Give the backbone structure.
Amino acid sequence: MCGIIGAVNQGLVNQDIYDGLILLQHRGQDAAGMVTSDGRQLFLRKSNGLVQNIIRQKHMLRLKGPMGIGHVRYPTAGSSSQAEAQPFYVNSPYGIVLAHNGNLINADKLKKELWVTDLRHLNTQSDSEVILNVFAHELEKSHKINLTKEDIFRAVTEVHRRCVGAYAVIAMVVGYGIVGFRDPNGIRPICVGRRESDNGPEYMIASESVALQALGYQLINDIAPGEAVFISQKSDLQRQQCAATTSLNPCIFEQVYLARPESILDKILVYKVRLKLGDLLAQKIQKEWKNHDIDVVMPVPDTSRTAAYSLSLRLGVKYREGLVKNRYIARTFIMPGQQVRKKSVRRKLNTIELEFKDKNVLLVDDSIVRGTTCNEIIKMAREAGAKNVYFASAAPQVRHPNVYGIDMPVAEELIAHNNTTEEICDIIGADRLIYQDLDDLIKAAKEGNPDIERFEDSVFTGEYVTGGVDESYLQKIANLRRDSGKVSDEPEDYATIDLHNGEE
């Protein structure tokens, strides 16, 4: 789960890219970067950390040109190295930079092909650099000084032929324009919008529609599975289907947790899905726990607020916000390392004792992954004086690893992998635990777009839409993803160099 953005403007693009990255910051807080171009040169700034801490005024002054792309990073495997901050760059052919959200499941095979057959060098362990080099190699086959949109679409077609997995990509080719494309299953989100200016149309491509709408771009639509959208540096937009076989299988966890509630993904308004999830969860409580003694419903902020509110309405129980979030603490789900996540829970949340004291409280969260957060929150609720603490998850049991770009860890770290609901309830210390049913989750999401026949729901079912995921592959990513393997391998004074100007 990373955030990507790209734009072609009539004037300087740096402010739009910066503002867009701020709007997508929830998709990754490990690293951020921006590359702009004036048609001849590239100007780069990237490093580990939050957007506002990495890209300062002095950097903005050097990020020139009407065309650019940006990225916020969320690591899913291995280290949080500054060397793996995006966008990535290759100078052959033409000069190409690329930002990617997702994960390839055949990256090892492609790395070997790139080294042995394509004669291309990789500098990191990132599969985003793999996609960049596959795209660059296929583009190089045109053997042209002047590229056409057909050359770019042909290169994307070859990326689809060679790459297997989840990928939403924005690439910029110096002197030509930017291209956005999506894997043939449409797993990770990406959309395109248009804004009118006095000098002509301006375009933006982004992971979520919220970035477009907040910056005055009108959402055109989502990039379809297998499709590529090319925007020339003269703001001419062309699009073409580049995959032989496609199927829209968007990741359903975007609707549960990852995306912002005001975003529209594949025609589905996230806010409405979360309202429906709360309503359906309340119906389950009414059916299975008819004589409940819940005094108050409380969300675990922020993602579960919408579901908790609709749940309280359906139950006819008071809605209260007894947990207050420190907005300056990053999302604990995407923090590397169990101990870091555990400590951050209490830094992130404080209780209002008035709302807990002598009450039977139903806490509502969007999901339960490792159990770290809910265990700490339940302890906090009891310390605040709650009589009984019940817990509800707006998502079903997360039992299987995700291989498509979300850090759902190895099976052994998932609390629901080998535990029943009753056992999980004991482990997290709740008096009662209620999970959403998978059928209800799918029902809520499909209301927004009935044309979607299948969602990517592997974390709940263990079924992977791309195929090619076997036990050996899962074991390999387990070795990379387990918390003990997530470290930063860069010294604290590591210098990040801006391309072309050599300044820190």
